[in-house]
Design goal:
Helix content is 84%, strand content 0%. The protein is an all-alpha fold. The model has no long low-confidence stretch (mean pLDDT 97). The structure holds protoporphyrin IX containing FE.
Length: 125
C-alpha cells in the first residue's frame, strides 16, 4: 500500500487538473463568474493538499499515525464540500455548503497544526 503522502498528492494533482480545465473553460467562454470557486479548488485543493502530501512524505513519523488518515478524510471532505458550495453561492446564492466546507477545511488545518507540533519536520518513525 502506498503512503498517505501519495494519496494527498494524488488528490492535489486531480484538483489542479480539474482546476485548469475549469480555468480554460472560463477563459474561452469569457464568463469569469466562477473565478472564486476555481481559485479555491486550485489553492486549497492543489497548493494546500500538495503541501500536506510533501510534508507527510518528508516526515514518516507523522505519516505513520492514524491521525494522518483522519486528516486526509477531513481535508478531502473540505474541498469536495467547499468548492461546489462556493460555486452554488456564486450562481444561486445561499452559503450553507460553502460554510460547512470551510469549517472542514479549517478543521483539517488545525489537525495539521497539531501534527506539525507533535512530529516536527522530517522526523523518522
Ligand atoms: C490552465 C490553467 C489556468 C487557467 C486557464 C486559469 C484561468 C483563470 C481565469 C480565466 C480566471 C478569472 C480571472 C478574473 O476574472 O479576473 C482565474 C482566476 C483565478 N485563478 Fe486561475 N487559471 C488557471 C490555473 C490556476 C492555478 C494553478 C491557480 C492557483 C494555484 C489559479 C488561481 C487563480 C486565482 C486565485 C484566481 C482568482 C483571481 C481573482 O478572483 O481575482 N489558477 N483563473
Amino acid at each position: 500500500m502506498r503512503g498517505i503522502g501519495f494519496y494527498f498528492f494524488l488528490a492535489a494533482v486531480l484538483c489542479v487538473t480539474l482546476g485548469m480545465v475549469w480555468g480554460i473553460h472560463m477563459a474561452i467562454s469569457g464568463d469569469h463568474l466562477m473565478a472564486g470557486a476555481h481559485a479555491h479548488l486550485n489553492l486549497v485543493g492543489w497548493v494546500t493538499m500538495g503541501l500536506f502530501g510533501v510534508y507527510y512524505t518528508l516526515t514518516p513519523a507523522a505519516a505513520a499515525s492514524s491521525l494522518a488518515k483522519i486528516h486526509l478524510a477531513v481535508a478531502l471532505a473540505g474541498v469536495v464540500v467547499m468548492v461546489p458550495g462556493i460555486a452554488i453561492a456564486l450562481k444561486h446564492g445561499g452559503e450553507a455548503a460553502a460554510a460547512a466546507g470551510s469549517m472542514l477545511t479549517a478543521a483539517s488545518m488545525l489537525i495539521f497544526l497539531y501534527t506539525v507540533f507533535k512530529n516536527g519536520l522530517g522526523n523518522p518513525v
